[in-house]
Amino acid sequence: MSDNFIPHTPETVKNLSNLEKAYVLARALPYIQKYRGQTVVIKYGGNAMINEELKETVISDIVLLTCVGINIVLVHGGGPEINEMLEKIGKESKFVNGLRYTDAETMEIVQMVLSGKLNKGLVNRIQQIGGKSVGLSGIDGDLLQAVKLSGDGYDYGNVGEIVAVNPEILNANIKNGFIPVVSTVAEGTDGNPVYNINADTAAAKIAVALGASNLILLTDIAGVMRDPKDPSTLIPEIKLEEIEPLIDEGIIKGGMIPKIRCCADALKEGVSSACIIDGRVPHSILLEMLSDEGAGTMFKL
Q1: What's the pTM value of the predicted model, to 2 decimals?
Q2: Known catalytic residues?
Q3: Fewest Cβ atoms closer than 10 Å to its Cβ: which of 114, 222, 235, 270?
Q4: Rounded to whole angstroms, how far apart are CA atoms 2 and 227?
């Protein structure tokens, strides 16, 4: 058996011998010991959230990690579902610099979809397979406080910039064995009652406030690749000083730039590790955390 042996599909797992299953578990032990008692923030969205089979593997990974003593906070987006609901009411989705332009009507839809349907659906799935979970929005317990995003000359509507995170409600639920599931709307502190928040940004800020050991962003690509069409060009590790040169070269571009800057900011503010992994790969969270193979690109100081 190869030292790089890792099961990737449900069919592979089904066909494992008992000895192979024991081997996989034994190989995971050092990583379980490393993370036991630590907090990991996972940002969940994209294809892994709309594909039902992938959703099941993400939820089962999260419950498994909590069963071995790792504290998980799940921060979720919901762009495709928001788009679908806006389409149903005949409203066009509008984006400015990659952020959803959020007028008052769109803000109502965002709250309804994120903090209602999606948030409670995730809580329900976690509990159906034996996990303990609680659904929260950034408004609950003053968790996320924000002001209107401005300063670059663009108007994003009711899109906010986080100015404070109060982790008390998260810590209380973690202490009592719950998995907090957080939708990314925030309490306004500048006269506007509520803001829409980018989920990557919210996850990074929450990770910093919790002193998390790891921030994981699930995406729809393999990670940072020198050639987007060639997965073999994946860059497994990137140091912070390498980020801007890679942006200048055009290797990091588009929607990946803000994701990577969120990872960099989290590391600079004390989070031990940050990575972008491929949410299309079944059990990519376990591959990243409990093996030496990994499932994307890790960022280091």
Answers
A1: 0.91
A2: 43, 46, 79, 200, 259
A3: 270
A4: 28
